[in-house]
Amino acid sequence: MSKKIVYPGSFDPVTNGHLDIVERAANIFDEVIVSVFCNPNKEPVFTMEERVKMLKKATNKYENVKVDSFSGLTTKYVNSVGGEAILRGLRAVSDFEGEFQMASMNKHLDDEIETIFLMTDTKYAFLSSSVIKEAAYFDGNIKELVPDFVYQMLRNKFVENNKG
Ligand code: ADP
What positions belong to coiled-coil segments (predicted)? Predict the structure, then answer.
């Protein structure tokens, strides 16, 4: 049977750190579904449609990677797409507590779904969507940290809009 894993997240916007996790997972699992989570508690910079579009463009070179979106419980969503596991990335010790809590809760909700963690590549250990947005807002050099078209979209959102 083919092994399907779901990589949920905000991806606001997708960074090269996320993409490194996607590429490595795509080499291990038969199918990776990257799914944008609609979080009612967060005010995103990019709309759901923009984030899905960005992820599709950034992952279209991988045959076994699909992009989707969802709201509600992750475990329910994973079941609805026939997934076996949830994929998350770990950057630093600071990620551990929240991820441990979430993985334990998800296990409680559905003990057939495992959470699998991939360690960040150390060169992306400091990278998050939040620091990208902060740097882009002040026109910092983030070119090597996100795909080119994401860089352009960030500029359109922040830099070009602030002119004049
Ligand atoms: P969420 O709001 O669900 O945390 P994010 O888009 O911030 O959504 O992150 C999605 C997942 O990707 C999380 O598991 C996060 O730890 C992981 N991640 C984010 N940035 C990196 C990175 N630079 N390297 C590895 N994993 C990362």
Answer: none
